[in-house]
Write a structure and sequence with these properties.
By secondary structure, the chain is an alpha/beta fold. It contains 7 helices and 11 strands. Strand 2, helix 2 and strand 3 form a beta-alpha-beta unit. Helix 1 packs across helix 2. The two termini are 25 Å apart. Bound molecules: 6-phosphogluconic acid (6PG).
Length: 247
């Protein structure tokens, strides 16, 4: 696996590095494939990256954005990942509305919404039944319990191997989420991890052996590049031989 782990001095440095890599991957995807299909993470850590992307001059008509997971709430709800990204980034640039691909949350049934988004992705990539399309860039966060997207420890969603999208559960709350095999098909996956509360989970995620179902971020082992951008507060207990320290 092509994994790079960088520990950055603080959150600002993490965001600056994430911006640099994101811009480079967008450029490469457009050069090689004519467009960039990128997947966005929720949570607080990537928000300044989205704000920074809003200040860039980019060929917005060639960039398509998707969400790796969503809470089952309308876009104007304070917990909505779609709402957060629109506010921080998409509302501030001229990206065509048809390039924005939010997870539907308007029906009564999360399972039906998961099927609908699954179909939407297959259509976008003209994928055959059983194919897992390759996104150009997938941004992910990690929770202090080791979850990523809405793949929470010891939940059914971790076992799903035959679908692109499924229903995840945070306690009793349904969430819609990319499955691990879909994430693993990507050309590039980039984790953004910040804060001292992530320290213990990170140690388990990077341990040579641990329970993948207890720390779902371990399931992410993409075909393409894997980047872990971690701030010092989160990464200070990681063994130096597994990381590149950036100053
Ligand atoms: C979400 C996310 C989730 C998030 C982590 C980290 O919708 O909550 O997709 O997986 O990335 O919980 O969140 P923070 O960046 O806020 O720590």
């Amino acid at each position: 696996m092509n994994r790079t782990v960088e520990v950055l001095p603080d959150q600002a440095a993490l965001v600056a590095r994430a911006l640099e890599l994101t811009l480079a991957r967008i450029r490469t995807a457009i050069q090689d494939r004519g467009r960039c299909a990128m997947v966005l993470a929720g949570g607080n850590t990537p928000k300044p990256l989205y704000e920074a992307l809003a200040t860039q001059q980019l060929p917005w008509d060639k960039i398509h954005v998707f969400w790796g997971d969503e809470r089952y709430v309308p876009p104007d709800h304070p917990d909505s990942n779609e709402g957060m990204v629109r506010h921080a980034w998409l509302d501030r640039v001229d990206m065509p509305a048809s390039n924005i691909h939010p997870i539907p949350t308007d029906g009564p049934e999360p399972a039906a919404a998961a099927r609908k988004y699954d179909e939407h992705l297959k259509q976008f990539f003209s994928a055959q039944a059983g194919d897992f399309p390759a996104f150009d860039l997938i941004l992910l966060g990690m929770g202090d319990d080791g979850h990523t997207a809405s793949l929470f420890p010891h939940t059914e969603a971790l076992n799903v191997r035959n679908r692109l999208i499924t229903v995840g559960n945070k306690n009793a709350d349904p969430r819609i989420t990319f499955t691990a095999p879909l994430i693993n098909q990507a050309h590039c996956v980039m984790f953004l991890v910040s804060g001292a509360n992530k320290r213990s989970a990170l140690e388990h995620v990077f341990a040579p052996t641990a329970d993948d179902f207890a720390y779902p971020a371990r399931l992410i082992q993409p075909q393409g590049e894997l980047w872990w951008l971690i701030d010092q507060a989160a990464g200070q207990d990681l063994k130096p031989e597994m990381t590149v320290q950036q100053t």
